[in-house]
Each structure stands twice: as C-alpha cells, then as structure tokens.
Amino acid sequence: MKKILSLGLLTLFISYTASAEESLIRLQSPYTAQATADRFETIAKEKGLNVFARINHQQNAAGVDMELRPTEVIIFGNPKVGTPLMQCAQEVGIDLPQKVLIMEDENKQVWLSYNNPEYLKNRHNIEGCDAVLTKIAGVLNTLSAAAVAGQ
C-alpha cells in the first residue's frame, strides 16, 4: 500500500512539474490566423477586457520587404486583475498586459498560444496570489477556447 501511495505521489509531482515548466499553452484553430485573431479580439471586448494593441507581424515584415507566415499578437487585459498580480510581484509587469499569439505554422495549421500563468508564477517567484493566477488562467482558457471553437 505504501508503495502504491509513494508511486502515486511521485506521479503527481512529475505531472505538476511538467505542467509548471510549460511556458506556452497552445490551442489549434480551425480558422485562418486572421479569423482566429478577429474572433479572439471580439470575444475579449465582449467580456469587458481592454484590447490595447493588435500587432500584425506579417504586415510589418512585408513593410521591410521580408516574408513571414501569418503571425499576430493581441495585447489585452484588465487593470483590476493585473494590478493585484503586480502587487504580489511587481516585476511580473514585464509580462503584462496579457498577450496571445496567433500564427500559421509551416504546415498551414493555425495556433493560438499564450503564457501559462503557472510559468509566470515560477518565473517571477509569485507567492500569495494563487487566487489571482487561477482567475487569469480561467479567463485565458475561456477566451482562447471560444476563439478556436469549431465551426
């Protein structure tokens, strides 16, 4: 029995460690990069979040006569959530507001990615803010899942 319990705890620890080390959470999208970005922006605004910027890296690359597959970053957030996180660890401000990356890979598959809040917790040694991090993780997951939800 002790052996089984020990094995179970070891498995739990390894799973937790692996998930904490994943810096990006990636979701596959059935839409084009632009449509995925449009959907994400619309959903974020509908949920009352501020969309601070939308950066089209492909367009910027074309402006200097370079090619890049579709790649966009949307910067968004809400100071009511970001501020308490910075009160726990001010240096997390380097990673705020939140961002999502929407890109088309070499196989023409579109991905929506965002920073794993658990990674940010570890990166910035955030303590005492688990409730805020859980809320952020929930919002990121909900918005992202809705943006890539099937047709």
TrEMBL record:
Family matches, as Pfam families: DUF302
Coiled-coil ranges (or none): none
N-terminal signal peptide: 1-20
Entry protein name: DUF302 domain-containing protein
DUF302 domain span: 55-117
Keyword vocabulary terms for this entry: Signal
SUPFAM superfamilies xrefs: TT1751-like (SSF103247)
Listed InterPro entries: DUF302, TT1751-like_sf
Keyword Secreted included in the entry's annotation: no
